[in-house]
Amino acid sequence: MRLLPLLTPENAPFWTGGAQGKLLITCCSDCSAAIHPPALICPTCLSRNVVPRAAGGTGMIYSYTINHQPWLPDMVVPFALAIVDVDGMPGVRITCEVIDAPLDEVKIGSRVSFTFLPVEDVWVPQVRLSGAA
Predict the structure, then answer these.
(1) Model confidence pLDDT, tens digit, residues 20-74
(2) Prior bond to 37 cis, omega within 30?
(3) Do the Cβ atoms of 98 and 82 come closer than 8 Å?
(4) How many CA atoms lie within 13 A of 131 on its CB side?
(5) Which Pfam families does the record associate with it (predicted)?
C-alpha cells in the first residue's frame, strides 16, 4: 500500500513522465528557472510560460534518513528515504526512496540514478546508487 498523489494539470507531467522513463521537471521558458514542486506560474519571473522538461536522470544525495516506522499497513521497513539534488536542474531537490542498496551504503554525496515504480496511474520516482560519495 502506498499513498498516491492526486494528479493535477501542474503535477501530472512529473508523476506520469516515468511511463517513458523520464523525470519531467517544470521549467520556465522565459527565465529558464527549474520549478519544483510543479507550478503553473514561475515563482522567479511570474511567467505563465512553463513547460515540463526531461532531467538527465541522475543526481546526488543531499540528505537521507533510514525509516524504521511502518507508517502504512504492509509497509516494509527499514528503508532509506533521500533528498536528491537533480543534475541539470539547479535548486530542484526530490524526496524519494533509495532502492536495491544495503542501507549502510547510502551516504550523503552518493551519486544516484532515477528509476520509477508504476503504481496505478502514477510512476513514483525512486533512486539507485550509481557511485560513491
Answers:
(1) 999 999 999 999 999 999 999 999 999 999 999 999 999 999 999 999 999 888 8
(2) yes
(3) yes
(4) 9
(5) OB_ChsH2_C (PF01796), zf-ChsH2 (PF12172)
User: Taking the domains of the chain in order of start, what are their residue ranges?
Assistant: 12-131
DSSP string, 46-64: --S-EEEEE--SEEEEEEE
Residues 122, 78: Cα–Cα separation, whole Å: 24
DSSP-based three-state secondary structure for 104: helix
Element (H, E) at 16: helix 12-16
Q: Which amino acid is at 18?
A: G
* CB 65 within 8 Å of CB 83: no
Longest Cα–Cα distance of the chain, Å, equals: 45
DSSP 99: -
Beta bridge partners of 53: 25
> Out of 2.40.50, 2.60.40, 2.30.30, 2.60.120, which CATH number does the structure's domain 12-131 have?
2.40.50
Q: What is the pTM of this model?
A: 0.92
Strand-strand pairing, 24-28 and 111-119: unpaired
